[in-house]
Predict the 3D structure of the following.
Amino acid sequence: MNHSTSPGLLLIEAPAEGVAVIRLNRPEVLNALNTALLAELADVLETFSHSEDVRAVVITGNERAFAAGADVREMAHLDAVGVHQDPRPQHWARIAAFNKPLIAAVNGFALGGGCELAMHADIIIAARSASFGQPEINLGIIPGAGGTQRLIRAVGKAAAAMMVLTGEAISADRALQLGLIAEITEPELTLERAIAVARKIAGHAPLAVQQAKDVLNKAWEMSLSSGLQYERRAFTFLAATADRNEGISAFLEKRRPVYRGR
């Protein structure tokens, strides 16, 4: 699996069959998310979305930070017109459109854009030492990459308002309590655990996994009745796939299924 990126911004690994790891690599600025990094990340995810070799992706940073926010120096010179013409919203939209499971392995700071990036993942696994926050209010601005909208859906209005309006970060324990993250690990095990989860997902039928992700995401936006109809259409679609027949046959024959994404 060879994917080129801008020098040093992203490191790509393939630790297991069907699994790719994307490591943010701007340690000198705690992995601050500048435009170039976001563009590269969106490009890599788009490539992975069309690759049969990649069935699940883990995104991570380093021991100190997943990502400590946007690159403030890059933003500082932008006026209202510059913000309006900023290409980053398009990069964020491309990241959000990734059609395969995305797992965030979070050590250290996940603040501002870093918290928003983690919330673009389907599953967040965090170290006990991790912290999550939207501190934009401290700079006289507000979250601009979904921080208000995704956060309120993840943790509820009261907790989201506390985080956004005070700018205070929360611990991994509090994030787990609120439902923002799925699991807590020791720092040295965060990436290992995320890869294990990705490997488990990669072993399932790819079309079923993609449909499950799509239906889960739509549940945020739809009424219950509309969501149930959408779910049923996806369920019906899968009845026409070879992998569905293979999964049922393997279950009845007491063997491991061999899924081909067909």
